[in-house]
Design brief:
The complex is a heterodimer of chains A (about 600) and B (about 240). Chain A is built from 16 helices and 18 strands. Chain A has about 600 residues and is of the alpha/beta class. Classes of the chains: A alpha/beta (about 600), B mainly alpha (about 240).
């Protein structure tokens, strides 16, 4: 939809900035840089994608192959927005070291993974920026929460986030008027809250990047971009094109009415409307080039349509290809100056790879059986959640693990899809016939799930590197992953199971499956929560980090990173909102430095 | 930006040995910009026959990459269809339909599974790429079912009486209680029950039966009403 074809022009265009990747980090960079007047070349490794015309809104499982169920090509179901991706990308393998297990979700499409994500948008809190100072583990971020808070506010206003006014320990509230009203809680969410109250587990409105009302296009653009007429104009237009959620169809399909946040509905349309962005899709970046002065001069990419290698130049290069893909590009950018990869004098590129600790349990809740019909689709995601609540116990040394987790939970009378009632025979002693139909009516809506999402502490054994042998179909050396959980993570996973069992018990329900006391049996495979971050971390010391607090590499001042690779730690807060806020701050710094002539 | 387009044309022209002047080739390239691209190897192969049409060396990406390409990892979501051949035969589908309707028969509230196409769905499912194990289980089970019915009652399963079919299903409907000689058949029954439920409860008829009333645009979202709050014990 945005394609601008410029390769045939006779004069090479002069770009201020090349942005690699169009997801959360790249989309935000393209937006912020273009509204501030810079000429941006945006490179995306996947195809062009238009959520307005392509999203299967309201399509039902009956009309899809296999009733919409997942397969190896579409692991999250037929209607999931992901293009050319999932746990494997055609022609683009990766490897894992012996003894390591790692899953890597990628997509190859404009907007990247922002097209299908869960939209859960939790701020990191004050503790999360200084974890090492609190418990001696991992590393501190080079900035504080107070520095980031204004960027969280602005990001939430820009993309639209619903949530409540709660202000809990390390679960900060947004400034007044920033969040959209949260949707009402569903019946099973209220039941969980009732059960959690005596357990002293808080159950509060979730924060998700979904509009519950239309954005105030008359006032917000001036608030977000004071004194910038171009930015205000394109943002006003973009906000006017976004509708509020109409409480139907799964967010994972994307959203043609632009009610939820995707880079392709929220960031790229205003960026393109500035006239300052040239977009090339199907452009697989393999390397950052440097000049004789040791500055980044541009990038090499392979045009996937012709399989021809190209080189494009700009004053500044911003990498936002997704955490590990950004590492891959940097590690593959070898020169006499940087034999171990560009800007990698510290040797830290690829190191300290993190995912989120995940463990889940399902339950059957008799009190939810046989209820009258009620539409519980809602915003097609969580309305309530449980933030981590045991900071006091941890501080007192009463917990067998550091750092916390939050709980996402769901269930109820959602859209019946493939696999519904699989396993029902264990409740009905193998019922079939009219009895089966009666049992289905009784049990429909009475199942729930609880998923823990916890912090992983970065360790020396979890990292990615260039595989010494394997290349992908573009001839680019691929990543090899190394992975190891520590006791902190496995103990945390066991604690999740214990907690879920307590909640389920309080609700009068029955756990389905096994409550694991051995956390290594409960914990999800590394990477499978799709919160992989780190590998090009920020820091205060060029010897132990790759980037300064603005995502600027210590070694190459005109090379920036604005995706999840920059993460120093991986708090239990889902990373996308922080990627967006950090990218905005990085771009402000980039523009200022470019204007000062420092890049 | 480097002029790769022209470099590339030069390479192609050299290897193709067909002697068109460079500027003509560029014109040809421009003219060919909107027609489908040939494999490069065909255009570049030394000694390849001289094409009568201009060599379509390049294609403007906007002509080709708008929207989905219809591959398994990038299917057309708006006009969905399974694109693999079904493998079950009519005889098998007849037996399967009878079993589906034993699992989900018509009752006062809704139709039977075969009425909403459960056998056709199970055929699609068992025939899917990579679904070989499912296909073996379904086909083996269907042969077993007819043979069992024939052994016990002298007739195929779908021609047996409801009481006769029930006698067989009772033996295989619950794996933990199935006799050792019925273990495979019970696994088969379990599979068909799961897939019949998927087939039935993903249709409008199935949704209505369960009382699923979503997937419609709503101006606002309300929490549970007083009746539901009372029933689940919130008040």
């Amino acid at each position: 939809m945005f394609f601008v074809y410029s390769r045939r022009s006779k004069v090479a265009p002069q770009y201020d900035v090349i942005v690699v990747g169009s997801g959360a980090g790249g989309g935000m960079a393209a937006y912020q840089l273009s509204v501030q007047g810079l000429k941006v070349l945006l490179l995306e490794a996947g195809r062009d994608y238009d959520p307005v015309t392509e999203t299967p809104m309201f399509q039902t499982p009956k009309d899809a192959p296999l009733r919409g169920g997942g397969n190896a090509d579409k692991p999250f179901g037929f209607y999931d927005a992901t293009v050319d991706g999932g746990w494997r990308v055609p022609g683009e393998p990766f490897t894992t070291a012996p003894g390591s297990q790692f899953s890597w979700w990628r997509s190859r499409m404009l907007g990247g993974r922002t097209n299908h994500w869960g939209r859960i948008s939790l701020r990191m809190g004050p503790y999360d920026f200084k974890p090492k100072s609190r418990d001696g583990l991992g590393a501190d971020w080079p900035m504080t929460y107070d520095t980031m808070a204004p960027y969280y506010d602005k990001t939430e206003l820009l993309i639209g986030v619903y949530g409540g006014e709660d202000d809990l320990e390390n679960t900060p509230r947004s400034s007044p008027g920033v969040l959209q009203p949260p949707p009402a809680a569903r019946s099973y969410e209220l039941l969980a809250k009732q059960a959690c109250d005596p357990l002293e587990i808080p159950v509060i409105p979730a924060h998700r990047a979904v509009l519950t009302q239309r954005q105030d296009s008359a006032r917000l653009p001036a608030r977000l971009h004071p004194g910038n007429a171009l930015a205000q104009r394109v943002l006003r237009q973009s906000m006017n094109e976004r509708m509020a959620c109409f409480y139907a169809t799964d967010c994972g399909r994307g959203c043609s009415i632009k009610a939820n946040f995707q880079s392709t509905t929220v960031l790229l349309p205003p960026a393109m409307a500035t006239g300052n962005v040239t977009l090339i899709t199907d452009a697989m970046v393999r390397e950052v080039s440097i000049d004789a002065q040791g500055k980044a001069s541009g990038v090499h990419y392979i045009d996937k349509l012709t399989r021809v290698d190209h080189h494009v130049t700009a004053k500044v290069v911003v990498l936002a290809a997704s955490a590990c893909e950004t590492s891959r590009i940097m590690l593959n950018s070898r020169s006499t100056l940087f034999p171990n990869g560009i800007a990698n004098s510290s040797g830290v590129v690829g190191k300290y790879l993190m995912d989120t600790v995940g463990a889940g349990l399902s339950a059957q809740i008799p009190r939810l059986e046989g209820l009258p019909p009620v539409n519980e689709d809602g915003t097609a995601g969580i309305h309530m959640y449980m933030p981590w609540w045991m900071y006091g116990e941890q501080k007192a040394g009463k917990m067998p693990f550091a750092r916390g987790y939050h709980i996402e939970f769901g269930g109820g009378r959602g859209m019946p899809g493939p696999g519904i009632f699989g396993g029902l025979e264990s409740f009905t002693q193998g019922a079939y016939g009219r009895k089966f139909k009666e049992e289905a009516r009784r049990y429909y809506g009475s199942f729930m799930y609880f998923d823990g999402r916890g912090e992983m502490i970065p360790n020396e054994d979890s990292y990615c590197e260039i595989d010494p042998v394997a290349v992908d179909q573009w001839g680019i050396p691929v990543l090899r992953f190394h992975w190891k959980w520590s006791e902190h993570e496995t103990q945390q996973a066991a604690h999740m199971h214990k907690t879920f069992a307590e909640i389920i018990d309080k609700m009068g329900g029955t756990v389905q499956g096994t409550v694991q006391t051995d956390g290594s049996k409960a914990i999800a495979t590394g990477g499978s929560i799709i919160h992989e971050v780190g590998t090009v971390r920020m820091g205060s010391d060029p010897k132990t980090s790759v980037l300064n607090e603005f995502g600027q590499t210590w070694d190459v001042k005109n090379l920036f990173v604005t995706d999840g690779a920059t993460f120093v730690s991986n708090a239990d807060k889902n990373p996308t909102l922080s990627i967006l806020a950090l990218a905005w701050r990085s771009c402000d710094h980039l523009v200022a430095e470019l204007k000062r002539g420092n890049l | 930006m480097r002029d790769d387009v022209n470099d590339h044309v030069q390479d192609e022209l050299k290897s193709a040995r067909h002697g068109i002047a460079r500027r003509d080739a560029l014109k040809a390239m421009a003219a060919a910009a909107l027609v489908p691209m040939l494999p490069e190897s065909a255009a570049a192969a030394p000694g390849a026959p001289v094409a009568r049409e201009p060599l379509p060396l390049f294609e403007a990406p906007q002509a080709k990459r708008k929207g989905p390409r219809g591959t398994p990892s990038d299917p057309v979501l708006q006009v969905a269809k399974a694109d693999w051949p079904n493998k079950l035969q009519l005889r098998e589908l007849t037996t399967l339909a009878a079993l589906c309707d034993m699992i989900i028969p018509a009752d006062a509230k809704s139709v039977a599974a075969s009425t909403v196409g459960a056998p056709a769905y199970i055929n699609e499912w068992a025939s899917r790429p990579g679904g070989d194990a499912s296909l073996v289980r379904v086909r083996g089970g269907l042969v077993w079912l007819d043979r069992e019915s024939n052994t016990r009652f002298g007739t195929r399963f779908h021609l047996a009486t409801n009481a006769q079919r029930t006698a067989i299903c009772d033996d295989i409907c619950y794996l933990p209680k199935a006799k050792p000689e019925h273990q495979f058949a019970a696994q088969f029954f379990d599979t068909i029950r799961d897939q019949t439920a998927t087939a039935f409860y993903t249709t409008p008829q199935g949704w209505k039966d369960l009382g699923y009333i979503g997937n419609v645009a709503m101006p606002k979202f309300d929490g549970p009403n007083a009746e539901i709050r009372r029933k689940i014990g919130l008040e």
